[in-house]
Amino acid sequence: MKTILILVALATSTLSQAADMPAIPAFIDEMVAKHQFKREELVRTFKRAERRQDVIDAISKPATMKPWAEYRATFVNQQRVDGGIKFWNKYEATLKRAEKQYGVPQEYIVAIIGVETLYGRNAGKFRTLDALTTLAFDYPKREEFFRSELEQYLLLVREQDFNLLSIQSSYAGALGTPQFMPSNYRKYALDFNGNRKVDILHEPEDAIGSVANYFKHYGWRTGEPVALQAKVADEKKLDVMTEVRPTFAWKADVGVTPMADLEAILPPSWLLDLTFDSGKEYWLVFENFDVIMRYNISTYYAMTVHQLAMELKATKR
């Protein structure tokens, strides 16, 4: 009995009625006036919503960045390579079609899905309505953003005829196999399998096409590199860098060159250094690297996607 009471107390401290949040009535008014939602339905919806303290806790954690080697090992490992090859083999025809249509290499589409959700296996454990309601009305730091995403979520559910109370997401409200926020779902998700539904929650073919479409929209440059490991002739010369993203020609002047032998003229790039216990590792990264960062504004994130993609491509051969 004591154990049960403790569990009940913990649950109560984590969950509470969202309908009591003072900003919700005004939000309902806005949705009714702006998008012609039925007031009674929204009132019932928010009575079912829960304020999640664990959502606030998750998003409020200090951004403690792991060392690069540790971060990389989380995403570039045998489990993700093996899972990626299985996913690639199963959906190879769809991936080839996405690459042909949008110009995004198959390995990068697979790698994004692998990093985000382990190929759809870890798409989120929070009810989306709860997560977005909590953040929209009880997280002042990013209230405007999440209020907009809650609006987009309600529109998405209406458009796609989803079950509002059953859809799960990340703690931030990211949805489905590729983890699109509701606004991006509405903008970039596709019916890529031709069944007249746009469902990245349950249909991997739609997820594949949607990732490719997202990258293309943000400027993916077909045929151009993402990143190339580089060597630095004299690391002391790097201390005189004054430009945030110096041109490739400038980097050549201070002794920064690709480690691979290349005949083609490289497009503009910038220098990224990654720290290992043994020292620095240098990479030239290009505009396509920036496109990956549109998914997650982190150089570590984009580099893990690139390196997982390279591992997948090498293994697939």
Give a brief description:
With 317 residues, the chain is an alpha+beta fold. It is built from 15 helices and 8 strands.
Give me some keywords for this one.
317 residues, two-stranded antiparallel sheet, Lysozyme, 2 domains
Overview of this protein structure:
With 317 residues, this protein is α+β, with helices and mostly antiparallel strands. The chain folds into 2 domains: 51-222 and 288-317, Lysozyme (Orthogonal Bundle), CATH 1.10.530.10; 227-285, no CATH class. Strand 7 (270-276) and strand 8 form a beta hairpin. The longest helix has 18 residues, at 143-160. The protein is globular. The strands form 3 sheets. It has a 4-stranded antiparallel sheet. Strands 1-2 form a two-stranded antiparallel ribbon. A two-stranded antiparallel sheet has the order 3-4. The protein is built from 15 helices and 8 strands. It has helices at 2-14, 24-35, 39-48, 53-60, 68-75, 78-90, 92-102, 106-117, 128-138, 143-160, 182-188, 204-217, 248-253, 287-293, 299-316; strands spanning 15-17, 50-52, 126-127, 168-169, 227-232, 256-258, 270-276, 279-285.
